[in-house]
Automatic annotation (TrEMBL):
UniProt keyword annotation of Kinase present: no
Record-given protein name: Acetyl coenzyme A synthetase (ADP forming)-like protein
Entry keyword set: ATP-binding, Nucleotide-binding
Gene3D superfamilies: ATP-grasp fold, A domain (3.30.1490.20), ATP-grasp fold, B domain (3.30.470.20), NAD(P)-binding Rossmann-like Domain (3.40.50.720), Succinyl-CoA synthetase domains (3.40.50.261)
Domain of life assignment: Bacteria
UniProt cross-references to Pfam families, sorted A to Z: ATP-grasp_5, CoA_binding_2, Ligase_CoA_2, Succ_CoA_lig
Length: 710
């Protein structure tokens, strides 16, 4: 795409040279023209006579707006008049606008009055971009006009976007149907509207000093789109660039961190209750087979291992140094790790930025970058990597091996993860504390786990992202192959940010995270338990081959609740075709109900459950099954569980492997039945209709993002 970048550069440099942050409307018009962003015909008038001449040339009616670098909010200043339909009104309007501007802000520099073709009709939308502190440049789309900040019906994407991603934004707002021509109205020209979004995203990417960009309103109709007003705000000061670490370097160090041949424990102790003692015990008792070097200048031996006064005194190579010393001693010990060429340091101590001591944290970051050391932490519980029997932590050991990698910024959340993993027998490949994230963060871990054969899903608790763009890049790569589940703490408003545009104000809450995590293909969990249940259940379910979901239930009430859950999760209840409806009816009593949900009624024997489940599995038009069980004497819980597991296993033996989830209602025996089903890759929960459908919904969200549904 050919753009006139030279013109934009000239305009922006001039504005910054004059010490301004806001472009005037004519300057904004020239920027839009340079990138092919449609705006109305216009001109700048210095006198009432010039305004009349421009209006007659453009054609009535016209809009008139004050042009002043000192007046950003033109409407508030009485600096906007619309619908001026003849020369007399234009001449009078010019004088009125100038007088209002001088009254609003005495001494304001006034360049003149903009005379603009009046546009309207169609649907008012907003297209904009802002600079998010986490993700950098993001582009926004939503309903526009004066109510934009009230309705807040807007969606965000990481800039730049391609045409397909821009089109997806039109469907990403609640009022998407309005754009498609609701109530007999003409649909908008979606391709042209998406093209404007794309051009805006490329403009702000090419010129990172553009902090905020608004086109509001944009009038979208079946004939195209045109922006009635443009607002461009520049960033004050230089544009900072984030540190970039090549993927090969990340993998090199992360591989040594997770698979060390030798670990040094800085601050090792033989005294019970000390962190350095707990780390030593966990490494030894956990079965780690590599070398363990305790570092303590006051000891000759700790827990049967020869102690060294410093890491520099260790005779062989060391892959990881685990720090269990007070914060004030960390900088010196980190320098020694640099002398020893140790590539990774795990910083358990607290007393850094989390306590307000940013200076000390900045100091260790500088040392680590200068000495080529990657740091995990500080202020963490350590980390586990079960394939190596590695338990480099002062918390309880964990040795149930599996394919789930879990991370958390919080030590308390880390322990909740540990307890859940143990109580559910959910095998893990890794549990990693991230703490202050002074260096190593989620994108480093995702980069490693994406290629780790021992990991098939990653679940992350995070309070923030240090580099949102790096995270999205890493997550997009991983989600092509393996699910990434995120629990983002702080779903409520993230605090009002000073914003000079509608887009900037709208971007001040959790919606940016929500939309961009979705753009990255990430499964977002609403709470801690959901994150853990997704991590446990999603890897067990096969990827669905299509959207058709069928509910088979023994209780009408649970069928209704399961249907509600299906809708809430964005799943699609299959419209049962007549031949399939007839096939199900062969097994259902006359007072039951086919359709979807399929209600076999509670008094039916095991054979009815068996026949309907088998039919649901064997018909290729059905892509996923949700089972609703009701505890009866006719079909007790374990009978249901055993027959369901057998029928599913028989289908798998024939090459049919569909997602099957189950909700069991009944007395306490249903708990054992659910455990039996879960052990056989059928995600089942007692006393809830929402939870099994939520896990199925999470699987579907990943499958869609990975492009597995065609």
């Amino acid at each position: 795409m050919s753009y006139d970048a030279e013109t934009v550069r000239e305009i922006l440099d001039k504005v910054r040279a004059e010490g301004r942050e806001a472009l005037t409307a004519p300057e904004g018009k020239r920027v839009c023209d340079a990138y092919g962003i449609p705006t109305p015909g216009e001109g700048l008038a210095a006198t009432a006579e010039e305004a009349v001449n421009l209006a007659e040339k453009i054609g009535f009616p016209v809009v008139m707006k004050i042009v002043s670098p000192d007046i950003l909010h033109k409407t508030e200043a009485g600096g906007v008049l619309v619908g001026l339909s003849d020369s007399d009104r234009v001449a009078t309007g010019f004088d009125t606008i100038i007088a209002n501007a001088k009254q609003y802000k005495a001494g304001a520099r006034i360049d003149g009055v903009q005379v603009q073709q009046m546009v309207g009709g169609g649907q008012e939308v907003i297209i904009g971009a802002t600079t998010d502190p986490t993700f950098g440049k993001v582009v926004a789309f939503g309903l526009g006009g004066v109510l934009v900040e009230v309705l807040k019906d807007v969606t965000f994407r990481l800039a730049p976007v391609d045409q397909a991603e821009a089109v997806s934004m039109l469907d990403g707002i609640a009022a998407a149907e309005v754009l498609k021509g609701a109530r007999g109205a003409d649909p908008v020209d979606a391709d042209t509207l998406a093209d404007v979004i794309r051009r805006v995203s490329e403009l702000v990417t090419d010129f990172p000093e553009i902090a905020e960009f608004d086109l509001n309103p944009v009038f979208a109709s079946k004939d195209g789109a045109i922006a009635a007003d443009v607002r461009i705000i520049l960033q004050a000061g230089p544009v900072a660039e984030r540190r970039q670490i090549p993927q090969e370097e990340i993998l090199r160090v992360m591989t040594r961190l997770m698979n060390p041949k030798a670990v040094a424990v800085v601050g090792a102790s033989d005294q019970d209750g000390k962190i350095g003692n707990s780390v030593m015990k966990n490494l030894i008792n956990g079965g780690y087979q590599g070398e363990i070097y305790p570092i303590n200048p006051k000891a000759d031996e700790i827990l049967g291992k020869k102690a060294y006064p410093s890491v520099t005194a260790i005779p062989g190579d060391v892959d990881v140094a685990v720090f269990a010393i007070p914060a004030k001693f960390v900088p010196g010990a980190l320098e020694e790790c640099g002398d020893k060429a140790i590539p990774a340091a795990v910083l358990i101590p607290s007393g850094f930025a989390e306590t307000g001591n940013h200076e000390l944290q900045d100091q260790i970051v500088e040392i680590a970058q200068r000495r080529g050391i990657r740091m995990l932490g500080p202020n963490i519980y350590g980390y586990y990597y079960t394939p190596q029997n590695l338990c480099a932590t002062f918390c309880t050991p964990y040795d149930v091996k599996g394919g789930v990698a879990l991370t958390s910024q919080s030590g308390g959340i880390g322990m909740a993860i540990l307890g859940f993993a143990r109580s559910t027998k959910m095998g893990v490949s890794a549990i990693v504390g991230l703490g202050n994230k002074s260096d190593v963060d989620e994108d480093d871990l995702i980069t490693y786990f994406a290629q780790d054969d021992n990991t098939n899903v990653v679940a992350m608790h995070l309070e923030d992202l240090k580099d949102g763009r790096a995270f999205v890049k890493a997550a997009k790569e991983m989600t092509k192959k393996k699910p990434v589940i995120v629990l983002k703490a702080g779903r409520t408003a993230m605090g009002a940010r000073a914003a000079s545009s509608h887009t900037g104000a709208l971007a001040g809450d959790d919606k940016v995270y929500d939309d961009i995590l979705k753009q990255a293909g990430v499964i977002r969990a609403p709470g801690l338990n959901e994150m853990l249940e997704y991590a446990r259940g999603v890897p067990l379910l096969p990827a669905p081959q299509g959207e058709n979901v069928v509910i088979i239930t023994g209780a009408g009430g649970s069928g209704v609740l399961l249907s509600d859950a299906v809708v809430a999760e964005g799943l699609s209840l299959m419209d049962i075709p007549p031949d399939l409806d007839e096939a199900f009816r062969r097994f259902i009593p006359p007072f039951g109900a086919a359709g979807n949900p399929i209600d076999i009624t509670g008094g039916e024997p095991p054979s009815t459950y068996e026949a309907t489940i088998r039919l649901g599995l064997e018909d290729p038009r059905i892509h996923a099954l949700i089972l609703g069980y009701w505890h009866t004497i006719v079909t007790p819980p374990m009978v249901f569980a055993e027959l369901t597991a057998r029928v599913v296993q028989e289908a798998r033996a024939k090459g049919i492997d569909k997602p099957v989830v189950a909700s069991l209602a009944g007395d306490v025996e249903v708990e054992q039945a659910c455990e039996y089903l879960y052990d056989r890759r059928i995600v089942a929960y007692p006393y809830t209709t929402e939870r099994p459908v939520a896990v199925l919904g999470a699987k579907y969200r990943w499958a869609r993002a990975a492009g597995l549904l065609g």
